[in-house]
């Protein structure tokens, strides 16, 4: 019994990365949950620990940021990116391009569903400051830029 407890205790200390706090919330697009979007957290250079993170939003637009397969991010400032693209149903993607989404997008076979400023690190208006306790009710409401 003691051997098992020592083995379990030894496994817990194997990860030397920064302490992470929960970062979770929802993303809406034009006031509706945005499902299947990638939300990315890019650390500000001033952060003491660099923990970039990401997640894919669920049916309710919900996300839980992950860093290296661990839930959460280190406290600090982040730029937030939201992107989502999908295939154009009128233009099937040839088999040769199915593995290369970038080339399929360049060929006009995949379109962006979320407005481009939110997916551009230099243009995104979204940012987040993660406190020592984490953030559990973040709401990112993105809007269409078309008028």
Describe the structure.
This protein has 147 residues and is mainly beta. The chain has a domain at 17-84 and 117-141: Immunoglobulins (Immunoglobulin-like, Sandwich), CATH 2.60.40.10. The protein is built from two helices and twelve strands, in the order H-E-E-E-E-E-E-E-E-E-H-E-E-E. It has helices spanning 2-12, 101-106; strands at 23-29, 32-33, 38-43, 53-56, 62-64, 66-67, 70-71, 76-83, 85-87, 110-112, 127-130, 135-142. Strands 1, 2, 5 and 12 form a four-stranded mixed β-sheet that branches. The chain starts with a helix and ends in a 5-residue tail after the last strand.
- Rounded to an integer in angstroms, the radius of gyration calculated over CA atoms is 19 Å
CATH hierarchy, class of the domain at 17-84 and 117-141: Mainly Beta
Helix-strand pattern, N to C?
HEEEEEEEEEHEEE
Helix/strand class = mainly beta
* Outline: globular
Spans of 5+ residues with little confidence (pLDDT < 50)?
A: 1-14
CATH topology of the domain at 17-84 and 117-141: the name is: Immunoglobulin-like
User: What is the residue-averaged pLDDT?
Assistant: 81
Give helix % range: 10-25%
Counting DSSP E segments of at least 2 residues, the number of strands comes to 12
Distance between the termini: 67 Å
Q: Please identify which CATH superfamily of the domain at 17-84 and 117-141 we are dealing with.
A: Immunoglobulins
State which percent range the strand residues make up.
Answer: 35-45%
- Contiguous helical run count: 2
CATH architecture of the domain at 17-84 and 117-141: Sandwich
Largest sheet: 4 strands, mixed
């Amino acid at each position: 019994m003691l051997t098992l407890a020592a083995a379990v205790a030894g496994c817990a200390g194997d990860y030397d990365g920064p302490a992470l706090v929960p970062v979770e919330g929802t993303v809406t697009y034009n006031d509706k949950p945005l499902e299947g979007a990638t939300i990315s957290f890019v650390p500000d250079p001033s952060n003491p620990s660099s923990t970039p993170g990401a997640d894919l939003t669920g049916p309710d637009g919900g996300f839980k940021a992950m860093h290296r397969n661990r839930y959460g991010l280190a406290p600090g400032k982040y730029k937030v990116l939201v992107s989502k693209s999908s295939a154009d149903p009128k233009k099937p993607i040839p088999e040769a391009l199915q593995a290369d989404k970038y080339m399929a997008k360049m060929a006009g076979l995949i379109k962006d569903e979320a407005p481009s400023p939110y997916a551009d690190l230099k243009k995104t208006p979204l940012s987040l400051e993660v406190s020592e306790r984490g953030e559990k009710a973040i709401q990112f409401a993105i809007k269409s830029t078309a008028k």
